[in-house]
Design goal:
Layout: H1 17-33, H2 46-53, H3 57-69, E1 73-76, E2 80-83, H4 92-102, H5 106-127, H6 130-146, H7 151-168, H8 172-190, H9 199-214, H10 218-236
Antiparallel strand pairs: 1-2
Helix pairs in contact: 1-3, 2-3, 4-8, 5-7, 5-8, 5-9, 5-10, 6-7, 6-9, 7-8, 9-10
Amino acid sequence: MIGESTSMPKPGLNAPDTDRTKQVVNHIRALIEKGELKPGDRIPSERELARTLSISRASLRTGIGYMVAMGVMKVCHGVGTFIQDGPAKFSKASIDLMGALHGFQSWQMFEARLIIEGNLAVLAAERGKEEHHAALAEQVAEMYAIADKNPTDFLLHDVLFHRIVAQASGNPILAALMESITSAMYEKRRKTVQRANYLREMAEMHRQIYRAIRAHDPAEARKQMMEHLRLAESAQKTEHPAAAPARQRKKKVQEPPASLL
């Protein structure tokens, strides 16, 4: 079943990765538009979908991983992959179109994230429930587990972590705004994240955000979120081919904690 993996592997040999991704996205969208898939429905098995689309399972997982990151679907490990049943989200296409027209810069996207996510962290600390805390802890654990192994999967868990923070805020409008920005940034980031050499440090920063939210400490949650986003903006510049290699950080990277508690 697709729920067994959210991996987004490298492009296959038969067609560009983007073509395979579009093929999967268009097929799922068609099923939704025809009413064959509704919010909360489990999608067909990985084997069935791969056979229907005549693509490899690796290519299928790339497309599914993309849709999970976009918020269209969610993975329940050991159960399957489902169409999201939450509130409607603003279209990523609208952000992409505005970006094409006005030339959005990376720093502008991060500035928007600082304003929105700093406040989302505050609300999550004030309103977050045990279910949100458990979900955040799960994503942090996954980040630590794959930080040195699979940058692409790390990115997916990163996206999911921030989505849970937005959900924990209890404000679906702010969450939808954040989703549109994250979705617009995701595809570009997926192409460069393989060059990231700072993911274990990012895992620790996510852990600190989680701990502040779990402790219902709004000021600390905002502080940790803002520090994380500022470092992420700086660090991601090193992922581009033309950028100079990242300088060795003086701060010793913390080893994975034995417990998130």
